[in-house]
Write a structure and sequence with these properties.
By secondary structure, this protein is mainly beta. The protein folds into 2 domains: 38-282; 312-413, no CATH class. Helix content is 8%, strand content 47%. It is built from 3 helices and 35 strands. The protein has helices at residues 12-23, 44-57, 165-169, and strands spanning 28-29, 38-42, 61-63, 66-70, 74-77, 81-85, 91-95, 102-107, 115-124, 131-136, 154-163, 179-184, 188-192, 195-197, 211-216, 231-235, 238-240, 244-249, 254-257, 260-271, 277-282, 285-296, 299-304, 307-310, 318-323, 326-331, 334-337, 342-348, 352-357, 360-363, 368-374, 379-383, 387-389, 394-398, 405-406. It has a 35-stranded parallel beta sheet that branches. The longest helix has 14 residues, at 44-57. It is elongated. The model has no long low-confidence stretch (mean pLDDT 86).
Length: 413
């Protein structure tokens, strides 16, 4: 007699079957493999054994509350995986200064593998080095279904990524990851409700080469050979002290919303060599040195209802720059500069068909030079009802010709 769902086991054999099925759904606890989580003992061997066991049995890997000292990466290869803890600040994996350059390394050659990392802190004692979470799907070029746009590849949520010194003493200058989360050739994914902080060089300046979140296509084969990255959501994420808060290369369908990007050189950066569509930035706060939002080569771009600060002294810098963008909207944003000789919005690189309306430009002293700068070659940029709060050298500087009709109409103080 077989044990059916919801059937109460009636003998020893049925109880064994029942517990075997139950056990197959329970997570693998790293403490059951010998990890102590006391922050002093090296838990590397125990954690790696648990990770291998979880991958082999297709079960989640669980880090209960504690601090786990690691000297090597947690590696998952060609298997679905869930890695989770009891929450940020409760479950913490800390890699030593002599550890490998990667915290969690996941590779997959199968487009059906799903990877989830949640409710955990990942810290490093390294000095602006290594990647906290590396998700590499480039193997699916030669295996798996690379055209499935509906299969979510990864989800990272309620995760804190930072240097080892931050949770212990609040120090942001001593250590930190070079990259928080890197995804290579994923077709879709999401990063939600998380905190990423690299190492600060000064109170306002990150180290060169650092990235909070990096979404890239296969570097050798270009976009369409690697499975066509197409759907990504970044929501309610705080990123601090990175050269690039969000760095996107050759990917379409990016939505960034309700996030904070602070003390970065470039807040939200999206570059396409192949003219991919869809980059949407809604309701974000970008307090950055060079550009809050920079979009290059993409089309169908919406940048709406963001608050942008610029603190870099450069006439080439702007709160937002769109270069080579076709079909876009820049609506309802607020621009405020704390740096001399900076600009609000720059449309360059033959950008075309951009609606610029209902934006607010706020001047502090004599800092912002030009509110809206349409560079030579950009055409059919239209808009009105923008608000200019201050005395600017140029409210609208149109160097692109007669097809541009962004009017100096609105409230002028």
């Amino acid at each position: 007699m077989s044990v059916l769902p919801m059937t109460v086991p009636r003998n020893d054999t049925q109880w064994k079957i029942f517990f075997k099925k139950l056990d197959s759904h329970l997570p693998i606890n790293v403490k059951d493999h010998g990890a102590l989580g006391d922050g002093v003992t090296d838990d590397t061997t125990a954690a790696l054994l648990a990770a291998a066991d979880a991958a082999a049995q297709k079960r989640p890997l669980y880090f209960p509350a504690g601090t786990y000292k690691m000297t090597a990466a947690i590696v998952i290869a060609n298997a679905a995986a869930t890695i989770f803890g009891d929450g940020i600040g409760l479950s913490r994996i800390k890699w030593t200064s002599g550890a490998s350059t990667t915290g969690i390394s996941i590779t997959s050659n199968n487009a059906r593998h799903f990877h989830q990392i949640r409710d955990i802190s990942l810290t490093t004692a390294k000095v602006a080095a290594g990647t906290a979470i590396n998700l590499d799907y480039s193997g699916q070029i030669s295996g798996g279904n690379t055209l499935d746009r509906f299969q979510l590849r990864f989800m990272v949520y309620r995760v804190a990524i930072c240097g080892d010194s931050l949770p212990d003493s609040g120090d942001v200058f001593t250590d930190g990851w070079l990259c928080g989360i890197q995804s290579i050739a994923a077709i879709s994914g999401a990063v939600l409700d998380s905190f990423i902080l690299s190492r600060a060089q000064t109170a306002y300046q990150p180290y060169s080469g650092t990235s909070g979140i990096k979404l890239i296509g296969n570097p050798a084969n270009g976009n369409f050979a690697n499975g066509h990255p197409v759907q990504f959501l970044i929501e309610n994420v705080s990123i601090w002290f990175c050269e690039y808060g969000l760095q996107v290369e050759n990917t379409e369908g990016i939505v960034v919303c309700n996030s904070n990007v602070i003390a970065c050189e470039y807040g939200l950066y999206c570059h396409s060599e192949y003219g991919q569509p869809l980059f949407f930035a809604y309701g974000n706060h970008c307090n950055c040195n060079t550009r809050g939002i920079l979009v290059s080569g993409q089309y169908q771009v919406d940048i709406c209802n963001n608050w942008l600060y610029n603190i870099q002294n450069s006439t080439a810098a702007g709160c937002i720059e769109m270069t080579g963008v076709v079909n876009g909207k820049v609506l309802g944003n607020t621009y405020q500069s704390f740096a001399s000789n900076s600009n609000g919005l720059i449309l360059s690189g033959n950008s075309n068909n951009i609606n610029v309306s209902n934006n607010t430009f706020v001047q502090n002293s004599t800092y912002m030079v030009t509110c809206i700068w349409i560079v030579s070659g950009s055409t059919y940029c239209l808009g009105n009802n923008n608000q200019f709060n201050g005395t600017f050298t140029n409210k609208v500087l149109n160097s692109g010709g007669a097809t541009n009709k962004v009017m100096e109409i609105g409230i002028n103080y």
